[in-house]
Write a structure and sequence with these properties.
The protein is an alpha+beta fold and 248 residues long. It contains eight helices and ten strands. A hairpin with a 2-residue loop joins strand 5 and strand 6. Helix 1 packs antiparallel against helix 2.
């Protein structure tokens, strides 16, 4: 199993000013609220446990987390009802883009998504136009892997039914069935690794970006989408070469 540079490895990280932190906290709270609809106990609700872990990793205050859980379980009767909506489109070089949103106002959200595509060299697509290119997968991320440990890590992943293992520049990404992500996380933790787990949409195939201009336009489009308060996740099937990444 092998791979190449993935989108997550070159995503632009924004400055942690107060406004940016507020947006991050809001998005995590919304994800927790949605997950808590299936139960407010993280020990029996893996999706909620993952949402809480991700929120804490970005320093979301406990009070925000607790409030979000109450919204999801219905304890907070004053909470606005959130809808999960998905939008699809295309970026430079025909890159497929999948946008997941959580919103209490459908019109506001679709207007914002369409504007981001229009202003950044992209086009919105019809429902189903690109969603078929993605599957929901479990993804484990392990950093600072030495060359000596890389082969052992890869073998451990394969022995435990991982679908793909990508190790590059000391970083490892393991793709697995979404139902098994917490089982594999525990296996790697028991083996002494620090592991981040998530469930995300993963492309079946990637599109190579060979132009620096296309790479820059794609980054601008993704960033514009991620800046929208209602958007919880943006996925693409772009593969940007290391040479272009280094130039940028």
């Amino acid at each position: 199993m092998s791979g190449h540079s993935k989108w997550h490895s070159i995503r632009h990280k924004k400055g942690a000013n107060d406004a940016a932190r507020g947006k991050i906290f809001t998005k995590h709270a919304n994800l927790i609220t949605i997950a808590a609809r299936s139960g407010g106990d993280p020990d029996s609700n893996p999706a909620l446990r993952l949402a809480i872990e991700n929120a804490k990793a970005e320093n979301t205050p406990n009070k925000n987390i607790e409030r979000a859980i109450k919204k999801g379980t219905g304890e907070d009767k004053s909470a606005a009802q959130l809808m999960e909506l998905t939008y699809e489109g295309y970026g430079p070089s025909g890159v497929a883009i999948l946008v997941e949103t959580l919103t209490d106002n459908r019109n506001r959200t679709v207007t914002g998504v369409r504007l981001a595509f229009t202003k950044n060299n992209g086009n919105m697509g019809e429902s189903g136009s690109v969603a078929w290119m993605f599957n929901r997968k479990g993804i484990l991320e392990i950093e600072n892997i030495s060359d000596e440990k890389a082969e052992d890590l890869e073998m451990l992943a394969i022995e435990n039914d991982a679908e793909d293992v990508i190790i590059e520049n000391g970083d490892c990404e393991i793709i697995c069935d979404s139902k098994n992500v917490f089982i594999l996380q525990k296996i790697f933790q028991d083996a002494g690794y620090e592991v981040k787990a998530k469930i995300a949409m993963h492309p079946e195939n990637t599109v190579d970006i060979t132009s620096e201009k296309d790479a820059e336009n794609l980054l601008n489009l993704i960033n514009a989408l991620e800046d929208h308060d209602d958007i919880s996740a943006v996925y693409s099937n772009a593969n940007i070469s290391r040479e272009i990444i280094e130039k940028m």
